[in-house]
Amino acid sequence: MKNVYIIGVGLIGGSIAIDVKKLNPEIMIYGIDKNESHLNEALSLKIIDHKANFEDIEKADLVIVSIPVDTTESLLPHILDNVSDETLVIDSGSTKASICKVVENHPKRRNFLATHPIAGTEFSGPKAAIEGLFKNKTNIICEIEKTAFKLQERALTIFKIMGMNLRYMNPEAHDKHIAYVSHLSHISAFMLGKTVIEKEKNERDIFDLAGSGFASTVRLAKSSPYMWTPIFKQNKTNVIETLDEYINNLTKFKELMETDNFESIFNEMENTNHIKEILNGID
Amino acid sequence: MKNVYIIGVGLIGGSIAIDVKKLNPEIMIYGIDKNESHLNEALSLKIIDHKANFEDIEKADLVIVSIPVDTTESLLPHILDNVSDETLVIDSGSTKASICKVVENHPKRRNFLATHPIAGTEFSGPKAAIEGLFKNKTNIICEIEKTAFKLQERALTIFKIMGMNLRYMNPEAHDKHIAYVSHLSHISAFMLGKTVIEKEKNERDIFDLAGSGFASTVRLAKSSPYMWTPIFKQNKTNVIETLDEYINNLTKFKELMETDNFESIFNEMENTNHIKEILNGID
Fold first, then answer.
1. pTM of the model
2. Interface touch A194/B236, C-beta < 8 Å
């Protein structure tokens, strides 16, 4: 493996570039990004060795696609059109069904591997890229059987060196599960932030009273709307299902308060305390 | 100041004890707790110097009350009955209106100072107590004008040495504001945890896919129901108001998704990104 092309040199693409370069400094990292200033930033931060254009990817041994999921969906067929028979193309999007669907009949489907590394921060852009972001993190791999055997092997070797734990799922199961443990948390944080910001318009200094608990709960509301709008769009049905259940649980909690049923309020919280054991090892 | 009594040697009371002892090692710290094993734990962790009983507080220069807010409400009048004219009694509860109300006509009202240090973690008990927990944190002080001048001074000196930023509010404004930036976050986290745990009953391994984003958003769901049930009870009206607004915002977000209005979804998130600047300095 000699030439690695990163399409989208942001938090994820940039962090993958850093890890790949570290595992073999002789690899040349080429960056492609429609945002010219991001590209220059990635270059000056030495995240990439060279700027490149979309047409250059025929020379790639590995192409990492780490751009918003709607752009992946529209661009991926053209990426596959342009790469060689030996190129491995990996995406890292937070949705998998639409992306797998759009290339299911592509003549180069076997050059593509659909993945979702569960890692990140609430920041974005090349400056947000960090070394070792993926160490001990889960990487969900979908439809591995559709990828050429030699290219599967190349991908797994890279992920292993990066220290990732691999899980295999089908794209539909991925999208359903991730709606609960990732997409819903983002909406929960965004709407919590919105609720408090709206209140602040009338009640000044409200944030003077905010502590680390609030900061933690609302952290994901810093996330990029450019990344997240297409995720919600592609995973609409699953996300609406999780939102229904979440709103339903909040409404029941409110009704317990309205009817002074604080014994049940206690039980609701005590039952959920079980999350402690579940989170062990995640945070 | 020689004798300090801590009623409730948990996260908050224990952390105050550690800081007070550090600022003057000659101060004797006495612990009172209905949980005998917590008391022994606090003793062996050297958070307190001696175990004590409720009757001993007549010898106290300072009494810190850091127990669930319903117990504070019922116990505070008796604490004031039992202390000397020179004793300062401070509570640290997350609600202020009911607590101030219950002692408003007490003959020793001037010995009491109502405070709410905005600090903590999701853990509880003496083992959770840590040094410097309150450094650079906000302490909200209510009705300071009702506390004897000399005792105000004693309290402010201690808070200053602990490194706290002081804010003065009336109890009703405190309870209204804190419902938004603290109480609502807890419910949001508890119900998010509940929604995902319920789903896991049918969909195994869902937590394998959880990352640090989920862990952050749901962190407060580890909090103690013994502390939080009475907080929600005492601040019922304000909390229900915040819950109404939060549920309303979530429902509107869901409707935007259902009607494929992803331009508005984008705007909702972009407007809330403003939380970045607000959180600067909190987390």
1. 0.92
2. no
